[in-house]
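Note to self: keep these together.
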Amino acid sequence: MQEDTKVNGHRMKVALVCHSDTLGGAAVVTYRLMNALCAEGVDARMVVFSRLSDDARVLEVSNRVVRGWTFLGERFGIAMANGFSRENLFKVSTASTGVALHRHPWIKEADVVVLNWVNQGMLSLRGVRKLTRMGKPVVWTMHDMWNITGICHHAYECTNYRNECGECRLLASSSPKDLSNKIWRKKKKLYDNSGITFVAVSTWLAECCRRSGLMNGRDVRVIHNAFPVDSFNTRPSAPLSWITLKNCPNIILMGAARLDDPIKGLPYAVEALNYLFDNNPELSRDSVAVFFGDIRDKNALADLRFPHQAIGRINDANTLRNLYACSKVVLSTSLYETLPGTLIEGLAAGCRAVTFGRGGQSDIVDHKVNGYIADYCDAHSVAEGITWALTGEADREAMHEDVRRRFSSKSVATRYIELFKELLHKDKVAENM
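Structure:
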């Protein structure tokens, strides 16, 4: 049965705002959320900066010229602050420029506006303030750390966000009153006067909010991203004839959009697999590590002695799901992850997960139950986890059902609808007082 999603006699209208509809992790999960909400009876639509699909429920905002100017304007301001260095240019955002989103008809019609990843010229802080003055609930789903820092999308080891930022390493700045501090102050003024409800996609991110000088004491809920759990099978639908070492019973799978991005921690995976190769040759002989995703550095796997194959980017969803179903282990050595999708996908197919725990992994992996949380930045601990995962018996169906309970589109949509109804009721009560 669908949720009661009527508002004043009509279907609840929700406008989801994101930089894109299909490009990037935040875009993909936002698009999934739109579909999940629609399946539960909500009139959900997306307003985006860059539209790549032909879905009629998705519209671009403004025109190409305006979008170009807002994008370049923000980047130019950051370049001026970092000495025109390209090294960290896209690791930070200032929300100094944006389109006039409050004028968009779908925003005007919406009962609830849900902001997602809105950087790089999509929405300015001033534009967010205008949205909050439209007299409707504004929810902001946080897909990285940008909402809780001055300007960076991930703080890495920096803890300046717990105070007022400043001395930003990504700007190579030694000034406590630099651009990161300036934007931090603007965000605080916005948050103090907006009534925005924030959604963290993992418990780890919510805990970061509580430590943040910007977010401590704000209304922060935890709702995970939705995943198409039922599209994953626990048994392969076809043999993997294209895997070079196809007779190996143990496939260890690791994937990312870009595997050699420093944040993915690929060197730890290489070291862990080499340790297994040197110290457990029998297990290694029956195993193969398969890597999917882009690798820009041709030498990234050059030192890996463990049997392996890099297959590049997989563009066919059915092929990827079949690969998961054929695998025993899904591996992630990412140094930080908000809510790593490959682990959820692997578990949905019945793979045991091996990962570090610095991020949303603990929302996904129950140590030595459905996976192994290795000691942070310890390759030998990762090797122990892989050994545990390969040598134990896994109940693939039970893992699939557990993921469905926690991350299915229906369960996530239901939690969002409950939040929307709560906020709409709160606004109605306030109006009648």
